[in-house]
Amino acid sequence: MRTLVKGGCIVNEGRLTDGNIVVEDGDIQAITTLQPEESYDEVVDASGCYVLPGVIDDHVHFREPGLTAKADIDSESRAAAAGGVTSYFDMPNTVPQTTTPEALEEKFQLAAQKSHVNYSFFYGATNDNASSFDLLDASRIPGIKLFMGSSTGNMLVDRMESLERIFSTVKLPLMAHCEDTDIINRNMAEAKRVFGNDPEVQQHYLIRSEEACYASTSLAVRLAKKYGTRLHVAHLTTARELELFGKEPNITAEAVVGHLWFSAEDYARQGTRIKVNPAVKTASDREALRKALTDGHITVVGTDHAPHLLEQKQGGCCRAASGMPMIQFSLVTMLELVDAGVLTLPRLVELMCHAPARLFGVERRGFLRPGYRADLVVVRPHQPWTVTKDTILSKCGWSPMEGHEYQWRVERTLCNGQTVYADGQVNADVLGEEIRFNHAT
Ligand SMILES: [Zn+2]
Fold first, then answer.
1. First to last CA, the chain
2. Which H/E stretch holds residue 400?
3. Model confidence pLDDT, tens digit, residues 354-385
4. 334 with 316: CB under 8 angstroms?
5. How far is ligand 1, taken at its centre, from the CA of residue 41, in Å?
6. What's the pLDDT score for residue 441?
7. Which end of the chain is less congested by CB atoms within 10 angstroms, N or C?
């Protein structure tokens, strides 16, 4: 099977080049500016489009097994394909939690049968499972996920001795959700005293406060320095936390699309739809996060795609679930930030494709290079369209981007050389591959 992707502007490794990509048996065989003369089984005309490496989303919650009323691997991997995301790392707060080798194996088997793009799974740390880290096949997982702050799924690790053991034991990248639970509980008690049992969502970012984020993130950074841990802090939300990053290559941070797009001013219009943990913070925090995309403080952009049913989003700070879907619109949203001058197109590709591949040691993906798997996305500018309910592929059936008009369109997504999405349709016959890792030691 030979495919030619011709005539696009290829964005890769800091450069924009007009050229053609030759794909053979799922691999990129050549990238050339010459007009290839041989015949092909399939020719993709990318004239007028940009061709990017498929996005690698380092942070998703596809809710399977156990929470499949909200989302599942089939539905969310379709949404990923439609959004130009060809690889994802799913988080361990499923049911059962991915905190044993058996639970991890079950996820690999599920995904092999139904994931339409490439997949892997974080293993979850608990207060007492650090001894099982050595049982894991490091070539199969991106790393260990640690909740230093409670969120969906009650995976909080809060004992200091447990944290010390995890940070000192783990050899793989340790991805941490950082929010200080004592500070949050104190703020919540005070908010309940003032506003009643379920304070309205406008209080969310004052309860899950800047102070709570900074206390926990700075503790994680301190422990990582003490033990030489490869620490990647998930979803930074505050200007203040950014100061802790950008100095040491082994201590990195992720920003997620929702925090880059929304600010506290949006609670009035969106309500609990944008309630996430950590909370969407102030407009000036968002400005700092956007600036950090180019100044080296943020290394990766993911989504924290975390669907809930709309009925689970009813209520206020206590009752409404935290998390929102985003994977289908992450790339086009970031492309809008390119149009707005927040970052350049090559920088977007660095943050969403190259950096996650490099950081987690992903084998043969994340770059457009001969010999790499042909994961790529064709995007077309100046193609206005509006997000409506019927465009949403996530199982939950809603999006905080509903009503938004995008100027960019994902025209086609190739995963391992196969067209998994084109012209508004997912090709559900396509299945992704298990991602392999080569962790530098
Ligand atoms: Zn998350």
1. 37
2. none
3. 999 999 999 999 999 999 999 999 999 999 99
4. no
5. 40
6. 56
7. C
For the CA atoms of the chain, what is the radius of gyration?
Answer: 21
- The two beta strands, 85-90 and 27-32, are unpaired
The yes-or-no answer on residue 180 being catalytic is no
Give 39 Cα–ligand 1 centroid separation in angstroms: 45
Average confidence score pLDDT of the chain: 96
Per-residue tokens: 338: 């390119």
Is residue 45 a contact partner of residue 37, using CB atoms and an 8 Å limit?
Answer: no
CA–CA gap between residue 353 and residue 333 (Å, rounded): 15
Which residue in this structure is represented by tokens 């050595």?
A: 134
Question: Which residues neighbour 237 within 8 Å (Cβ) at sequence distance 6 or greater?
Answer: 213, 259, 278, 279, 280, 281, 285, 289
Give the mean pLDDT of 105-123.
98
Tens-place pLDDT, residues 292-347: 999 999 999 999 999 999 999 999 999 999 999 999 999 999 999 999 999 999 99
**Which residues 6+ apart lie within 8 Å of 362 measured at CB?**
56, 87, 142, 356, 435, 436, 437
User: Rounded CA gap, 124 and 91, in Å?
Assistant: 8
94 closest CA partner among 119, 125, 72, 63: 63
As a whole number of angstroms, the distance between CA 104 and CA 367 comes to 27
6 C-alpha to ligand 1 centroid (Å) = 37
Question: DSSP code of 34?
Answer: S
Q: Which of 349, 381, 386, 364 is nearest to 434 (CA)?
A: 364
Q: Which residues are close to ligand 1, an ion, with C-beta < 5 A?
A: 304
Sort 371 into a burial class: Cβ within 10 Å, 0-12 / 13-18 / 19+: exposed
Q: How far apart are CA 373 and CA 27, in angstroms?
A: 4
Residue 325 CA to ligand 1 center (angstroms) comes to 11
Task: Find the 67 Cα to ligand 1 centroid distance in Å.
Answer: 15
What's the pTM? 0.98
Is it the case that residue 440 has pLDDT exceeding 80? no
C-alpha 213 to ligand 1 mean position (Å):
15
AA identity, residue 359: L
Does position 34 have pLDDT exceeding 90, yes or no?
no
pLDDT tens profile 203-230: 999 999 999 999 999 999 999 999 999 9
Distance 322 CA to ligand 1 centre (A): 10
